[in-house]
């Protein structure tokens, strides 16, 4: 039997292996809204119904992420808060802020991508009311929920005291597809912006963890950032290269991602390894816009459905 065209496949997790539309994406929406209406220092009047998302739509979040450099969801929240707090509004209510929000119009003003936090700060300034510490606290409470937050953070929740949005996730790739890849001798790895605790929890929950030989998470990336004094988050290829090292650099790799940052990271990794990018943009709120944006960075392959990955790895087309 002829060897497969690619003998290693690396994956992003969010909206690639696991459907995070009602977890991570909604956690971003909740974090931003709760931050602005927190009763301790309210920046805007809260909606009439506390448990209702009224400010950002799923499409708003997806469009903002497509600006690049916001794979880290805390950074995405930070960037969105900068954008929202610089909107011209007559009344400090979420309703007036909603009317003043137009992410697509803002995207047309962005001249250089990936935008990143540094880019939006340069464009709009840095509001003193926004801190990454508070963003991360709210986000982790919303995403993990009361019990998991206490387990992972060793703290009592303050902002969110019910089930976490992590419980709303669903698998995208079926076990049978991953099993076929493994049976063919194809190594599987992960390069994700998730913390390791959250990545392992989700993969174990769906019975997927044992299919993967290794992974690199945001925990390892942040450690390397502290050591090198530079940003190593996608579109930087660091997490892809670290996972490839664990598998073996002499293999021929595919990297499957859903955002332009994923495609750019795989392209940058080519200076060190044999790798091709695979775009899987279909779970965005506006899949046509996501496809148009990801095509601008010229992925090597476009994956129409998860089951097609085996044929691509096997035949190279």
Number of strand elements? 8
| CATH second-level architecture of the largest domain | 3-Layer(aba) Sandwich
Number of domains: 2
Q: Overall mean pLDDT score?
A: 95
Q: What is the string of helix and strand elements?
A: EEHHHHHHHEHEHEHHEHEHEH
Strand order of the largest sheet: 5-4-1-6-7-8
- Tally the helices: what do you get? 14
What sort of overall outline do the alpha carbons produce when their principal axes are compared? globular
Write a structural description.
The chain is α/β, with parallel strands linked by helices. It folds into 2 domains: 8-19 and 170-315, 3-Layer(aba) Sandwich (Rossmann fold); 24-166, no CATH class. It has helices at residues 24-37, 58-65, 73-85, 94-99, 103-109, 116-124, 132-153, 175-183, 196-205, 218-228, 238-247, 260-269, 287-295, 309-315, and strands at 8-11, 18-19, 170-171, 187-191, 214-216, 252-257, 274-279, 301-302. It has a 6-stranded parallel sheet with strand order 5-4-1-6-7-8. The longest helix is centred in the middle third of the chain and has 22 residues, at 132-153.
């Amino acid at each position: 039997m002829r060897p497969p065209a690619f003998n290693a496949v690396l994956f992003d997790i969010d909206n690639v292996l696991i459907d995070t539309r009602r977890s991570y994406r909604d956690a971003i929406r909740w974090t931003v809204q709760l931050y602005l209406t927190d009763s301790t220092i309210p920046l805007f009047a809260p909606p009439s119904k506390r448990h209702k998302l009224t400010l950002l739509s799923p499409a708003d979040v997806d469009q903002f992420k497509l600006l690049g450099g916001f794979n880290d969801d805390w950074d995405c929240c930070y960037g969105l808060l900068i954008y929202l707090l610089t909107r011209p509004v007559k009344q400090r209510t979420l309703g007036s802020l909603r009317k003043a929000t137009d992410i697509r119009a803002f995207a047309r003003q962005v001249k250089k991508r990936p935008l990143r936090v540094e880019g939006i700060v340069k464009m709009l300034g840095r509001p003193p009311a926004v801190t990454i510490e508070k963003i991360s606290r709210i986000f982790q409470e919303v995403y993990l929920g009361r019990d998991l937050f206490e387990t992972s953070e060793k703290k009592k929740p303050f902002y969110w005291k019910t089930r976490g949005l992590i419980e709303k996730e669903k698998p995208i790739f079926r076990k049978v597809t991953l099993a076929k890849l493994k049976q063919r001798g194809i190594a599987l790895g992960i390069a994700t912006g998730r913390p390791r605790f959250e990545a392992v929890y989700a993969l174990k929950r769906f019975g997927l963890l044992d299919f993967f030989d290794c992974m690199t998470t945001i925990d390892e990336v942040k450690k390397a950032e502290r050591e090198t004094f530079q940003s190593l988050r996608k579109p930087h290829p660091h997490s892809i290269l670290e996972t490839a090292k664990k598998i073996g650099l002499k293999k021929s790799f595919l990297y499957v991602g859903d955002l332009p940052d994923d495609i750019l990271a795989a392209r940058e990794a080519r200076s060190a390894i044999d790798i091709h990018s695979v775009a899987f943009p279909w779970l965005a709120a506006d899949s046509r816009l996501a496809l148009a944006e990801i095509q601008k960075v010229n992925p090597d392959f476009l994956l129409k459905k998860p089951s097609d990955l085996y044929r691509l790895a096997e035949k190279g087309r």
